[in-house]
Known about the structure:
CATH architecture of the largest domain: 3-Layer(aba) Sandwich
Largest sheet: 5 strands, mixed
Radius of gyration: 18 Å
Shape: elongated
CATH topology of the largest domain: Glutaredoxin
Low-confidence stretches: none
Number of strands: 5
Structural class: alpha+beta
CATH class of the largest domain: Alpha Beta
Strand order of the largest sheet: 2-3-1-4-5
Number of helices: 7
Helix content: 40-55%
Number of domains: 2
CATH superfamily of the largest domain: Glutaredoxin
Order of helices and strands: HHHHEHHEEEEH
Strand content: 5-15%
Amino acid sequence: xxxxxxxxxxxxxxxxxxxxxxxxxxxxxxxxxxxxxxxxxxxxxxxxxxxxxxxxxxxxxxxxxxxxxxxxxxxxxxxxxxxxxxxxxxxxxxxxxxxxxxxxxxxxxxxxxxxxxxxxxxxxxxxxxxxxxxxxxxxxxxxxxxxxxxxxxxxxxxx
Length: 159
């Protein structure tokens, strides 16, 4: 069963046809519509657009903003740059993993409500340690505040 809509991809191909950044822009559109770049979607895109699958895969795996696996509705990014690492970032990541039931402290919850990822720098070193959920940035995070932080997004899911 296909995990994408062919007409959406055909529309994206038509929209970006001929532009220098068309491949990246089209992949962003496909991921936005599907939630990730599924094997079926990129294979269809390759066939329909004439772009070699190897080129699509190269770009999709090079840029961290692309995902070949389903992602959650809420993206939780834990900064592990130098300042955040020194100020307990790894333990905060572990606490988030436990709270979300993710054994590897990274990945997507089975209900696809949350994706937990470790990032190298969020550019907020003076607020270390930092966690970003979607577009919201939280500084000076402590393990004790993690459940309350997640509760905000769990409540939003129930509405």
